[in-house]
Amino acid sequence: MGSMKSIATGGKAIYGAPLGILMLEARFPRIPGDMGNAGTWPFPVLYRVVKGASPERVVLQGAAGLLPAFLEAAAELVSIGAEAITTNCGFLSLFQRELAAHVRVPVATSSLMQVPWVQASLPPGKRVGVITVSAGSLTPAHLAAAGVPADTPVEGTERGVEFFRVLIRGESENMDVTLAVRDILEAGQRLMAAHPDVGAVVLECTNMPPYAHALRAALGVPVFDVYSLITWLHAGLRPRDFGVGDRGMSSHN
Q1: Domains in the chain, ordered, with CATH?
Q2: What per-residue confidence (pLDDT) applies to 3?
Q3: What is the reported pTM?
Q4: What digits encode the pLDDT tens for the residues 143-162?
Q5: What pLDDT is stored for residue 252 in this prediction?
Q6: Angle at CA 234, nearest 5°, toward 228 and 239?
Q7: Which own/partner contact pairs does 207-210 have at CB distance under 8 Å and 24+ positions apart?
Q8: Which of 6, 74, 226, 246 has its CA 20 to 30 Å from the CA of residue 31?
C-alpha cells in the first residue's frame, strides 16, 4: 500500500469561502434572508464593505464615481481567496463588464441576470416581471447590462411607507418588518394587476429575499431573487460531491 499524502496546498489567505460579496455602506437592519446577514447563506462567504457606496448614491445617483472603489474591493476579495464575486445591490449591474474584466473570475453583480433564464422556462404568452426598490431609478442601462429586455414590466417600492424610506433614504437605522412586508406585497400586486401576463417574478433588491416566500404565496407565481442566484453560483464553485470521485474520471478514459 502506498503512503497517504500529507502535503496541504497553500497559496491564498482564506480557505473554505470561495464566494466574495461586495457590500454597500449602510446601517439598516439586515434580517435573516438579507444578503448582508451572514446567517442567510448555507455556506461561508467573504464580505468587503465598499466605502462611500451608500444605497442612495448607488441607487438614486447611478453609482457615479464609485467604479474604482468597487474594482479595488473586488480585487482584494479575490486576492484573499474569493473565486467568484457578487454584490449586494442589483443596480450594480452597471459594473458587470468592468468588474469581470478586472478580477478575471466569475462575477454576478445583479439578481436581474436571472431574467433571461427565467423567461426561457416560461410557457408561451408569459413573461418575467421585476420588483425593485426604486422603479424610477432602474434605467434601460441597468436592464441592458443584465441582459434584461427593455420592455420588461417593472414595479418599485417607492410608493410604500417603510422599505424604500429605510433602505434607500436612510431615514432610520430601524425597520418595521410588518410594514416592509406590506410594501413588497403591494408592489407585487400592482405588478400583477397591470401585467396579467407575468408568469414569474425576479426581485432586484438583495434585501428582498426575506419576503419572497410571502410574495410567492400571494401572487401564485415563482419568485426568484439574489438568494437563488448566489446559491446557483456557489453550486458551480463547489459542486455537490456524490461520492464518485476519481472513479467517475477513470470511466471516461
Answers
A1: 19-110+231-237 (3.40.50.1860), 111-225 (3.40.50.1860)
A2: 54
A3: 0.92
A4: 999 999 999 999 999 999 99
A5: 40
A6: 120
A7: 207/30, 207/34, 207/35, 207/36, 207/133, 207/163, 207/167, 208/131, 208/133, 208/184, 209/33, 209/34, 209/35, 209/40, 210/31, 210/32, 210/33, 210/34, 210/177
A8: 74
